[in-house]
Protein: Aromatic ring-hydroxylating dioxygenase subunit alpha
Organism: Rhodococcus jostii
Amino acid sequence: MVGHADKVANPGDYFTVELLGLPIIVARDRKGDVHAISNVCLHRAAPVAVGEGNTKFGFSCLYHGWSYNHDGSGRSCSGMEDAADFDPKALQLPKYEVRVWEKWVFVAPGGGAPDFDEWIETTAFRAARYNMGELEFHGARRYVLDLNWKLINDANHEAYHVPFVHPGLVNAYSVAKNYGVVDPDELRGNDDADRGANMSPDVNGYTHMANEISGELLAMEPNPRGPFSKVIAALGGTSDYRKIKPALDCLQDRDKLAHYFLFNWPGLSHFHFMPDGLGLILLVPIDHEHTEVYVEWWMPKVSRFDERLLQAALIVFGNQILDEDGAMTQLVWTGLQSGAYDTGRFAPTMEGLLYAYNVWYIEQLQAGLEREEA
């Protein structure tokens, strides 16, 4: 995910972004097609656009004025009229795979990306229930952790740590019955059309592999949660809490109390579908010991002050959970660097999705090494 779709809603709209060190322009041309192109001029490697905005005819390099259309094709190069065998219109900035889905723009800068529809399929299955068009952007947070990306990614893939790292979530949802088997084939074997909807009502969580590149973790709300949990707990339980902070009107049955965490590999991001809306977490490796974390919140528009206050409290609570994860994984990073640790075991009933991810990740590393040796 590189940006919001509303940034390129109209012909001529564009925004710039850097993805893993690669400068990129995302632009919508006058025909309405969206493109992702390199933001590095073919003349002297200067940027051809900055920031975001709208441009009728395309982009001009800030250094020497070479100009390009919205799709990255060359338009004109002032000063190059006398150059032999040179046609500005034959130029083409590198192009990358790009898709607009719901509220976001996704770009795959390298070759070999999975089919986008397959990649997003599990997330799209959940999104269809949440009336995405009614959710509005409620803010974002960006911060840097001094650790390798995989540590925070591992924490995101399991709920085993919740009772120990997140005391505020002890009353949020039960993880005691959150199951996951360590055989990836068995994880992928849950062919339930509703991905767990027909499970026994006393199952408060599960992990599931929808396909080879998409995983899902479910946690149910059995108790009040959030900064007001102690106050709401005095009223009774979750049902009373949800009278004050009801779930989205569009949700039915168990979705009114469900938290679905959707993972799409190889992207280092996951969607958190919750009774109140949607959260998005994106990990951006800076180098092997620094990781940028980007978080977004999407909820419906509300008018009453108490409704806005509850939404704000939810975001504050979410940031508290993120800070707790960051602090713990920072300690883990220190332990890994000490040389006192080698490898650890996976908990069969709690870390099935994490195991499946690690199996997939090792397979990708091995395939990459084989390609380099070939």
Observations:
- Residues 176-199, 223-228, 230-238 have pLDDT under 50 and may be disordered.
